[in-house]
Amino acid sequence: MHHKITIEPFRIKAVEQIKLSTREARQQYLRQAAYNPFLLKSEQVIIDLLTDSGTSAMSAAQWSALMRGDESYAGAKSWERLEAVIKDLTGFPYILPTHQGRAAEHLLYTRLGGPGKIFISNTHFDTTRANIEYSGAQAIDIPIAEARRPDHIHPFKGNIDTLKLGQLIEQHGAQSIGAVILTVTNNSGGGQPVSMANAREVSRICRQHGVRFILDACRIAENAYFIKHREPGYEDKSYRAIAQEMFRLADGCIMSAKKDGLVNIGGFLALNELELALQCRTVLIITEGYATYGGLSGRDMEAMAVGLEEVFDPDYLHYRIASTAYLGNKLYELGVPIVRPVGGHAVYVDAQACYPHIPPAQYPGQALACNLYIEGGIRCCEIGSVMFGKYDESGKLIPAPMELVRLAIPRRVYTQSHIDYVIATFAELMQHREAARGLRITYEPPFLRHFTARFEPL
What we know:
The protein is of the alpha/beta class. The protein has two domains: 23-52 and 313-457, Aspartate Aminotransferase, domain 1, CATH 3.90.1150; 60-310, Aspartate Aminotransferase, domain 2. 40% of the residues lie in helices and 14% in strands. The protein contains 17 helices and 16 strands. The strands form five sheets. A seven-stranded mixed beta sheet has the order 2-8-7-6-5-3-4, sandwiched between helices. Strands 9-14-11 form a three-stranded antiparallel beta sheet. Helix 2 runs antiparallel to helix 11.
């Protein structure tokens, strides 16, 4: 093998047309979308890096598994297959299928949450935080200090601050902690991995205080890759075995299979407590579907069962991490400020460093996302003060800790020439970045505003 070039470890069997557009057309599309990439139509986008969730290309094995889908309402064969794969992977006895991660979050965090409850995480992602706050509980992020410094190199920037964790549990009292949630990899913190040592210490602290430890495991295969290549003692373990070891440290997990399950829809909640599982199952049946399908068709469950095995393939994982790093390293060479080291599923651009003249209240991340679209038809997602900003009593913006733009790479979808096009677009943008202008919000909803907010340029 030539180690200089990482090739896509697959051949392409079916293709989907990309509509190419002119700059003038894109300016008009963006105006119609109120300067929010979420409101663009997909056919107006050339390269879609909005999210890596549910945007994967399925394999031939997954497509053929679809045909086996048992669409029985209760006790389908497809459910048995999926349940067996999840039990083997996670080791948890009680498995609840859901249509995606946030349905599992809703089931679990509305049971464990409520006014007066506290949830602690390395970083709660947007839907996790929304489900927790919607229940009346409070979500606290305690990533390690290095995580807040985009340019600082650390092998496990996704780690939680275990010293702070112990202090918070003692300060609030174990009985008021809904759960400690470890997100692997840490999405909002730049797609950064969590070390096994950190997960083990979290597990120990939680057991000592009698607090629930939940793994948000939607990118656990990518996290396992980083552990194998960065953490001493894991060189000879398989990616799957590393993931299994991490699952065994927790009391339960939530997984959006739309990431490392390599499917377009699907997820699950897995628990080791019967009583809690029964409570969640009751709500599952009321809101999502019967306990053996949870809002999914049999064919979706078949595809997920295959995807959860395929994702641990060493050639796939090497290509996945190397191709993401390729984009990040090339952007860094161009002088684009990014979160380093490059994470597993996305490259995060430090928009505040890119546009130092745009203050947080004028949303530099949103400005960068809009400019990328106009310049190259590339859609991406702001992870900064649009997504995580709050207001004080006087209505003044409390900015997010970082102003990032996430270039999330769908799995098995784009080739290197697509990524080279993204790099070329950035090269253009960097030449006239001082001319970039901020935006103001003209409409926003109370929760998850980034999905539907409307903007106008200043």
